[in-house]
Amino acid sequence: MKIVRDLTAARFLLRRTPLEAASLPPSVSRRISEVFGEDLTAGAAVDLIIDSVRTGGDAALLTLADKIDGISLTHLEVSKDEISQARKRVSGDLVNALKLAAKRVRSFHHKQKRHAATSFSSAGLGQVVRPLERVGIYVPGGTSSYPSTVLMTAIPARVAGVQDIVMCTPPNKEGAVPAITLAAADIAGVDRVFMVGGAQAIAAMAFGTTTIPKVDKICGPGNIFVTLAKKKVYGTVDIDGLQGPTETVVVADETANPALCAADLLAQAEHDPMSSAILITCSDAVAEAVSSEVDRQLALLERNRIASESISKNGAIIVTETVDQALELANLYAPEHLCLLLKDAASHVPKVRNAGGIFVGEVSPEALGDYVAGPSHVMPTSGTARFSSPLGVHHFLKVSSLVALTEADLKALGPSAAALARAEGLTAHARAVEQRLERLL
To answer: For the packed helices 42-69 and 26-36, what is the interaxial angle rounded to 10 degrees?
Structure first.
């Protein structure tokens, strides 16, 4: 891994590039050219996909599945029977692991719900909190399966009280959704599952097709095409945020185990060639040791090609003079995952201002948070941790303001309201109040 020891250079390295301007891996650029017959940016390709689905509906989805994924489908929805039978096609150990994860995720979000917004009314004013009616969740797939993402998105929605949860996920090369993904959907309480991936899945849930219902909100992580599609359909539907290519920052001092630092970096690098894995350390010895460990461990990974490309293009080791400097750089980057491999790691948590998730100490690895810790692993990326939060119950609730005043309130407040309305030139507003006041005389 490249090692940067100059703070000015480090700040330049950590600068954020808008997703639309992100440099695509050569393999992705080639694939875009093959599919669309011309060289396009990711954003332009997403525009074409969204327009195709918006106008063509189900037929466009079937065509795109063949064109983009090389899969010929005759239908889009997975039957209820196939979903319910999926558990029988998964080993007992894996089903038990899913149940354990689901139990912990559900328990955490029930606790979270108790602290979420609640309905109240006092002196005629208050708020009414209601769950969203229909939510769409996106679960990545294709080259791998992510049953954990099913649990991390569907369970918070169900705890919030969402009535209808639909899920889109790409089919595998056999034209089916993996049994473990369907088993997770069954355990999490997903209502309907559709075999659609990529930007086209986002468009289908945003606009609706004959088969796939239009939703109120789309949640879940994905690659750059999925993330750009979510960004483009926002306003037609709500979205949870921009959960694009994953990223992690490990902050380490001289007490950190280089092998564990390397393992945490590679755990994110193996997701996607556009993933980012960055170590910031105040120890030159740890920097050198981690660089060697990354090389050693890379050779052992099944997804070596993906992880190697990620490390080569987006990985880095930054050396600072102090832990505080390291944390300041981490706050500047605002990572999705921030792992604190520090002596007395908990004491440094108050210094963290911007991070999707904070993983404190060697025994709280980010990989544990991905599966069974409890909080959702759907977290803000691309620097959006500066202003957004991990997926939770609150994402599936909406608030309506409640105004239920008395005649006494109308008498006391009406003249001021009418005066302000006339000052703004909105005489109809003023008369709407004044007529009521006149009726009280």
So the answer is: 70
**CATH value of 3-21+245-387 in 3.40.50.1980, 3.30.420.40, 1.10.275.10, 3.20.20.30:** 3.40.50.1980
pTM: 0.89
Counting other chains too, the contacts that 297-301 makes at CB distance below 8 Å and 24 or more residues apart are: 297/259, 297/262, 297/263, 297/266, 298/266, 301/266, 301/270
Catalytic residue from among 109, 337, 348, 395: 337
What's domain 77-242's architecture?
3-Layer(aba) Sandwich (3.40)
336 is catalytic: yes
Token digits for 211? 């088969």
Active site (annotated) includes residue 20: no
Instruction: Give the model confidence (pLDDT) of 296-341 as tens digits.
Output: 999 999 999 999 999 999 999 999 999 999 999 999 999 999 999 9
The domain limits of the chain are 3-21+245-387, 26-69, 77-242, 405-440
Give yes or no for residue 102 having a pLDDT over 90.
yes
Strand partners, 122: 125
**pLDDT above 80 for 22:** no
**Which listed residue (270, 309, 336, 366) is catalytic?**
336
What does the pLDDT look like over 42-52, one tens digit per residue? Answer: 899 999 999 99
